[in-house]
Amino acid sequence: MEITHYVPENSLLKPYIAGIYLLERYAGEAPERYLAFPGVHQFVTINREVICSAGNRQVAFCYQVNQPPTSLLVAGFGAPRLWSYQGPVQEWNICFKPLGLHHFLDSSLIDFESTPVQSDFTPFPDYAGHAEALYTLSDHIAQARFIEDYWASKLKAFKHAFLEELVSKILENNKEHRLNFSELARHFNISRHTLHTAFKRYVGTTPARFEKVHRFRNALAAYRLSGESVKLTHISGEAAYFDQSHMIRDFKSFTGFTPKDFYKKIATFPKGDINWAFV
């Protein structure tokens, strides 16, 4: 599988879209599988000529000639999901920053809490036509810009009284300054219940769960930047865990492995029949 990353060129989209990714597989390639773990971003995917089967724990794509494009919304903060591909694939992924989707959609992310992978995602009346037109273009750069133009045309005003600041505080948090959500509620002059209700409605999970997922992702980034020889105590500090045992508990809850065993899986990434990917 080849993965190409495109950075949005449209300045209006950059605050809301982190990137656009193209996943490609070709005829004759062996079937592939990978586990995707929770993250703080949401993804909208578009695939051509595939049959898609999506559940809470597994998403499978199988090539089917002349099948119309299919789209998914991936908006979950829960368990890992196994993704599998059989046959050629051209899959576009639009990666939205936290709260980013609300600058385009009217739906609340809490609507997708019970089904974190929503198949047959059709957010706009002209969306199916957009997906069809996308695959009439043969140049990938032109396709990426076509996706940008479409989402830019759907941009709408969205401003929340406190969520932008709250999300920023969580994303910028470090070990030296622990967040206290009761104190944050007082800072915004609201009740803690109001803070949690609004966060879950617009972000799709609780503030505590969001913070937990963010720390987990920071630990992955710290490992990848530091190299295989780095000590777990260093990673736990970089990722703002209380201590190493705190990181171990979180890793087990997200992956089923301790960090040490999990990182071994990353080191052997090209060799296993299940590839570990982070999307």
Describe the structure.
With 279 residues, the chain is an alpha+beta fold. A hairpin with a 3-residue loop joins β5 and β6. It contains 9 helices and 11 strands. Strands 1-2-9-4-7-10 form a 6-stranded antiparallel beta sheet, with helices on one face. It has 2 domains: 152 residues, Jelly Rolls; 98 residues, Orthogonal Bundle (Arc Repressor Mutant, subunit A), CATH 1.10.10. The longest helix is centred in the last third of the chain and has 20 residues. The two termini are 14 Å apart.
Largest sheet: 6 strands, antiparallel
Number of DSSP E strands: 11
Helix/strand/pairing category: alpha+beta
Distance between the termini: 14 Å
Number of domains: 2
The SSE order reads EEEEEEEEEEHHHHHHHHHE
Q: Which architecture of the largest domain does the CATH hierarchy give at level 2? A: Sandwich
* Integer-rounded radius of gyration: 19 Å
What is the fold named in CATH at topology level of the largest domain? Jelly Rolls
CATH class of the largest domain: Mainly Beta
Helix content: 25-40%
State the low-pLDDT regions, or none: 267-275
Reading side by side through the largest sheet, how are the strands ordered? 1-2-9-4-7-10
Strand content: 15-25%
Shape: globular
Average pLDDT, all residues: 85
